[in-house]
């Protein structure tokens, strides 16, 4: 608080707090809703509210640096003849060339490939830079079909049919005119400089029955080689996961409300969708009821930051996690070295979320050639690889402490919750008790 | 010419044989019989083949076509020639919804009617429809030409980018940001050429042209009712 | 989320072949809805003095004769009945509440699928082929028929959750799509006295039509009003004692195709379901326009765009 508001004993409204007042004033000034990037910033129950029960007397731990603890994961062996084999259970989420610079896309590919995992295209198509630098590349199939090319479908290692995104389940994409450069415009067949709005529904199917036919087409075109992922934003997760499986998915990608975006209405980011923590047990329940858990793999994203988050997501039933925001931060997004420039555009290192504006000082969420040139794809790729190694080691550390020789052997029973909200959402007992809200126990 | 019956072979077997031609062209002309409304027929082709489908095809017939000529002697379901890149798809009957959706190139000819959302998000394809098209046709059309010899349903060309639309009959209503535009000589010429390539006899002078008013290109409070 | 099919005969000479003409239509939609299937067949009208009650019980040992006897004693009126696999059709008096109450108290495993002068609803879990075979669809006769193959979305895969849904005498509805305001509408309809057996959105649509028609709307009028009151995505096919109707929502994403000849009107989710009908080559074939009500009621086809 500012000194004078404190000293004068001014009382701020809890309902109409400064942010609410500022937003009303901004809306009245501009007549358009607030658009920004990043994910939900409000506090929601999260992995931080869970802790692991490390081994002690009743369970035996593995030796931290010596005894094997596997991290590999196979994705998409239900129907595809060429499933993905990843060395670590952390993948890079779909982010478009357009929202990100070509250098950033290349860096993501370099970093992911260095540690044996996959990266993912985004709205706008596949670039040569990312295909060239990605050992394993997942090709997103989106409502807009910008840059959608069957050649790229065949060059990809897997296909991700995008239904929704955690930051905006039910909404389409956006890319503001300042980021529609010549190259982006050409890839998307759009006039340069338009404010591009991507569709929220696919143009040639709606609903799971027609999706099943669409998946059949994608498989036919790629001769049943590529795994087909279905990405959903977390909302009615239990039903959506069942329908994804029925429609023929090899892999379900579940993105919680903390998942990031390049540009979406603030009201959407903060008020639509459910937290990642709440979504995972619903998805796992749906898979288990269909006897498909670990047969149709579950990738979870939305707020994954460290190895503990990875281990917790897997313990709750995920096969792998996916990171977007954290990967950008690893590349250099929000880095203090650009503090002065952040301040010049009204932000600060650690707070920057105007990805839509295309003025990213770190050269990541921009199409400005000068800014983009600041990101050295090799160096940034090494930073990402370092980060991915760290969080994998962290997840292994926890898994070994719980006596697991593979991270996939972590279970919900290895977790307890620190508060009732997390216990209820994650369906694990409140720490020190056997009580799971809604399920009983003491 | 090689003939394969879908009463005896699976869609997978037929498509695999067609895809194998992309590696080595051994048979340029194929005939598929007994399609019985099956989905994803002759999709993902990437070779200068001619494929004749004797009967009705289901969803996504000739989807993502490259180079090939696919003739359907019957009706087609949703999304015929969706995301076509090049080549030619000719439907001798009616087409269901989303014909030519998001297609980037090539020519799609539909002798009969096309239903709703014909040419949705079209990205460079040319579509010529002998009959009428349903509602929301050319929705968000980005590039390419849509020619309708019959009537167009409501909200034609809603949220249009740079696709050009030609309609001979009545237009039930124009969508947001779609307006009638002057038919100049260059438009008559391109329409004449499209009709000739489609093999449809019609006088270009009977058509009207529609395109984008370009008012939705940037977010603005005064355009909010269309957003 | 499913496949739907309907066939309304204009030519009486085809009535003995209704099941034979319809079965391939239903089976061709098996891929769209492998979880369950059902159909509502109209015919064998019992006249104004009686009603037909279609009952179903999962237990093959159900004592239908005993139930018929008990009901006859309770009603004091003759009960004529026949059995068809897991279903039975009872023909008796018009006091439907009395029949429903007696069944609830005395035959707990028995579900009342439909009530009307003409309608019989038969449905069950499993692939459409199995359901059609179970009930001998191929040999059935009648005037019109509506069928459904279901891929369950939010509600359970069980017999009760299968379509068609019937909430009033001789009225049934099948649906492809997903409604987005059915929960509050259900509450409103419950206050208006309608009964619900499931949490299914389609049952709400059926009940809505029953309510509107009880309030005096024609079938056309009820469907016109439905466009304003039902939100979401839908293709509906509706049957009444002598009527048949099709309606799509204003966006009309879920597929629907119709065909008409001098002999029949037919609708299906995909054209392939119509290809076995006689004379389809020369039929008028079209995809129904959004928010346009298409109705046949023993007369010529009418269609009307509803006001939104």
From TrEMBL, chain A:
Gene3D superfamilies: Aldolase class I (3.20.20.70). CDD domains: GltS_FMN. Keywords: Oxidoreductase. Residues 81-404 form the Glutamate synthase domain. The keyword Manganese does not apply. InterPro entries: Aldolase_TIM, GltB, GltB_archl_type, Glu_synthdom. It comes from the Bacteria. The keyword Cell cycle does not apply. GO terms for molecular function: glutamate synthase activity. Pfam families: Glu_synthase. One of its GO terms (biological process) is glutamate biosynthetic process. Belongs to the glutamate synthase family. This is N-methylglutamate synthase subunit C. It comes from Aquisalimonas asiatica.
UniProtKB/TrEMBL annotation, chain B:
It comes from the Bacteria. InterPro entries: Glu_synth_asu_C_sf, Glu_synth_lsu_3. GO terms for molecular function: oxidoreductase activity. SUPFAM superfamilies: Alpha subunit of glutamate synthase, C-terminal domain. PANTHER family: TUNGSTEN FORMYLMETHANOFURAN DEHYDROGENASE, SUBUNIT C (FWDC) (PTHR39673), TUNGSTEN-CONTAINING FORMYLMETHANOFURAN DEHYDROGENASE 2 SUBUNIT C (PTHR39673:SF5). This is N-methylglutamate synthase subunit B.
Automatic annotation (TrEMBL), chain C:
GO terms for molecular function: transferase activity. Keywords: Glutamine amidotransferase, Transferase. It comes from the Bacteria. Residues 2-299 form the Glutamine amidotransferase type-2 domain. InterPro entries: GATase_2_dom, Ntn_hydrolases_N. This is N-methylglutamate synthase subunit A.
């Amino acid at each position: 608080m500012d000194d004078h508001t404190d000293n004068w004993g001014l009382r701020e409204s809890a309902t109409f707090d400064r942010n609410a007042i500022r937003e009303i004033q901004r809306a009245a000034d501009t007549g358009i809703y607030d658009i920004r990037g990043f994910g939900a910033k409000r506090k929601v129950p999260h992995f931080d509210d869970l802790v692991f029960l490390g081994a002690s007397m009743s369970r035996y731990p593995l030796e931290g640096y010596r005894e094997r603890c596997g991290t590999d994961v196979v994705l998409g062996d239900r129907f595809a003849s060429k499933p993905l084999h990843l060395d670590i259970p952390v993948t890079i989420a779909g982010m478009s060339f357009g929202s990100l610079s070509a250098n950033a896309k290349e860096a993501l590919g370099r970093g992911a490939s260095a540690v044996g995992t996959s990266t993912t295209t985004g709205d706008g198509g596949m670039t040569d830079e990312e295909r060239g630098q990605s050992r394993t590349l997942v090709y997103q199939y989106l409502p807009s079909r910008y840059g959608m090319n069957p050649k790229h479908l065949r060059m990809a290692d897997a296909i991700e049919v995008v239904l929704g995104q955690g930051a905006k389940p039910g909404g389409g994409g956006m890319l503001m005119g300042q980021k529609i450069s010549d190259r982006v415009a050409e890839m998307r067949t759009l006039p340069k400089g338009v404010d591009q709005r991507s569709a929220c529904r696919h143009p040639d199917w709606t609903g799971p029955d027609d999706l099943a036919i669409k998946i059949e087409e994608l498989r036919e075109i790629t001769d049943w080689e590529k795994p087909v992922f279905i990405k959903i934003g977390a909302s009615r997760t239990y039903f959506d996961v069942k329908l994804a499986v029925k429609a023929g998915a090899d892999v379900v990608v579940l993105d919680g409300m903390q998942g990031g975006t390049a540009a979406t209405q603030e009201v959407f980011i903060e008020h639509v969708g459910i937290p990642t923590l709440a979504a995972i047990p619903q998805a796992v329940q749906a898979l288990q009821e269909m006897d498909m858990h670990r047969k149709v793999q579950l990738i979870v994203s939305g707020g994954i930051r460290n190895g503990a988050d990875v281990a917790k997501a897997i313990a709750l039933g995920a096969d792998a996690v996916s990171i977007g925001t954290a990967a950008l931060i690893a590349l250099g997004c929000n880095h203090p070295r650009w503090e002065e420039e952040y301040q010049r555009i009204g932000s600060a290192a650690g707070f920057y979320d105007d990805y839509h504006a295309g003025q990213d000082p770190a050269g990541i969420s921009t199409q400005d050639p000068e800014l983009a040139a600041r990101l050295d794809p090799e160096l940034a790729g090494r930073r990402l690889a370092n980060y991915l190694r760290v969080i994998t080691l962290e997840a292994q550390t926890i898994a070994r402490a719980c006596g697991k020789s593979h991270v996939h052997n972590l279970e919900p029973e290895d977790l307890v919750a620190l508060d009732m909200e997390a216990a209820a959402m994650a369906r694990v007992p409140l720490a020190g008790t056997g009580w799971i809200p809604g399920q009983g126990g003491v | 010419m090689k003939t394969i019956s879908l009463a005896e072979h699976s869609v997978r077997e037929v498509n695999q044989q067609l895809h194998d031609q992309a590696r080595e062209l051994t048979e340029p002309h194929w005939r598929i019989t007994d399609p019985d409304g099956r989905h994803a027929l002759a999709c993902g082709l990437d070779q200068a083949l001619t494929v004749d489908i004797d009967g009705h095809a289901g969803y996504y017939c000739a989807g993502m076509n490259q180079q090939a000529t696919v003739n359907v002697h019957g009706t087609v379901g949703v999304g015929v020639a969706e995301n076509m890149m090049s080549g030619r798809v000719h439907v001798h009957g009616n087409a269901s919804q989303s014909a030519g959706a998001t297609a980037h190139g090539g020519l799609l000819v539909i002798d009969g009617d096309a239903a709703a959302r014909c040419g949705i998000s079209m990205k460079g394809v040319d579509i010529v429809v002998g009959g009428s098209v349903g509602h929301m046709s050319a929705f968000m059309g980005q590039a390419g030409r849509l020619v309708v010899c019959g009537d167009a349903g409501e909200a034609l060309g809603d949220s249009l980018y740079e696709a050009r639309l030609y309609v001979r009959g009545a237009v039930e209503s124009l969508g947001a940001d779609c307006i009638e535009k002057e038919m100049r000589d260059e438009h008559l010429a391109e329409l004449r050429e499209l009709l000739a390539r489609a093999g449809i006899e019609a006088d270009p002078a009977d058509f009207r042209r529609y395109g984008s008013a370009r008012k939705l290109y940037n977010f603005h409070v005064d355009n909010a009712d269309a957003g | 989320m499913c496949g739907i099919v309907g066939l309304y005969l204009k030519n009486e000479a085809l009535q003995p072949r209704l099941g034979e003409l319809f079965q391939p239509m239903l089976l061709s939609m098996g891929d769209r809805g492998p979880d369950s299937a059902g159909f509502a067949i109209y015919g064998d009208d019992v006249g104004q003095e009686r009603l037909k009650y279609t009952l179903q019980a999962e237990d093959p040992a159900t004592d239908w004769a005993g139930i018929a006897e008990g009901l006859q004693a309770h009603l004091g009126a003759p009960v004529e009945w026949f059995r068809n696999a897991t279903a039975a059709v009872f023909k008796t008096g018009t006091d439907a509440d009395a029949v429903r109450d007696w069944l609830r108290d005395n035959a707990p495993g028995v579900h009342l699928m439909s009530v009307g002068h003409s309608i019989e609803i038969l449905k069950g879990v499993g692939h459409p082929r199995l359901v059609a075979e179970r009930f001998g669809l191929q040999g059935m006769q009648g005037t019109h028929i509506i069928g459904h193959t279901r891929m369950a979305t939010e509600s359970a895969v069980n017999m009760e959750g299968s379509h068609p849904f019937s909430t009033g005498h001789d009225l049934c509805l099948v649906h492809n799509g997903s409604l987005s305001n059915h929960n509050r509408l259900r509450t409103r309809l419950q206050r208006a006295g309608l009964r619900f057996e499931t949490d299914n959105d389609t049952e709400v649509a059926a009940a809505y039509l029953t309510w509107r028609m009880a309030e005096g709307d024609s079938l056309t009028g009820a469907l016109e009003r439905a466009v304003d009151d039902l939100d979401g995505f839908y293709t509906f096919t509706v049957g009444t004692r002598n009527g048949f109707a099709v309606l799509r929502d204003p966006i009309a994403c879920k597929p629907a195709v119709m065909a008409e000849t001098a002999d029949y009107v037919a609708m299906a989710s995909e054209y392939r379901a119509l290809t076995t009908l006689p004379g389809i080559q020369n039929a008028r074939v079209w995809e129904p326009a959004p928010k346009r009500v298409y109705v046949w009621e023993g007369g010529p086809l009418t269609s009307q765009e509803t006001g939104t």
